[in-house]
Amino acid sequence: MTNIDQLIKSVEQWSIDKDLHKGNPDRQALKFYEEAGEVGAALSRNKLDDLKDGIGDTVVTLIILAQQHGMTLEECLQYAYDEISKRKGRTINSTFIKESDLNGNS
């Protein structure tokens, strides 16, 4: 089985091979939204194979979007984790709500 680091590097190389790494990030963001919509469609239809494909395709679009901005998926994920790891709040109806949102603050 391939590990996540190898997969990310493979996607980055595929992006370079297809000359997407220098593409228009706005177009890549639109591709992300399209793939995210497929995730929603798969969930609504309870199609697990389509869900797996949609999640994978969504991650691919994010890897390329990060690459287009001189970033890596790892550093973006680390940045996000550093933020969420400090958050306080509550889970309500299976959704985590930040403390500041519970209190009505921004």
TrEMBL record:
Source organism (scientific name): Staphylococcus lloydii
Ranges where the NTP pyrophosphohydrolase MazG-like domain occurs: 32-88
Protein name: MazG-like family protein
Pfam family, one: MazG
